[in-house]
Design goal:
extended; 124 residues; 1 helix; mainly beta
Length: 124
Amino acid sequence: MTRQGGTADDVDGPFGPELLVRIPVRTPEGRTGHQTQRFVGVDGPRWFLRAVFQGPAALDTQAAGELESVVRDVVVVRGPEAMAPRELLPLRLPEAAAPTPEPQEQERPPLDPFTRGPEITEIR
């Protein structure tokens, strides 16, 4: 970050030490602006969870509240198998959070893309 002309500061946050960075970016108007990001790390036994907050959540604690709640609710199941360092663990939704199944076939009208649908006649 600092090689790109940005700044990096160690700050204390709700998860312990965090890194607050400001990265120079080019705006659509061609000007130089700064993007603020907050790097959060949670260290566990044989795993590390990294979260990056950007936009309003990087600086405003009110805006970051919901994202911080997501980080707090993450459950890491590392498993006993050997893995290479920095290999990513697969993400899985808990069964209760799985999406609801699609409606049954008989509830839907048949899909026929070659049949004309309803038409609207405009009268002026």
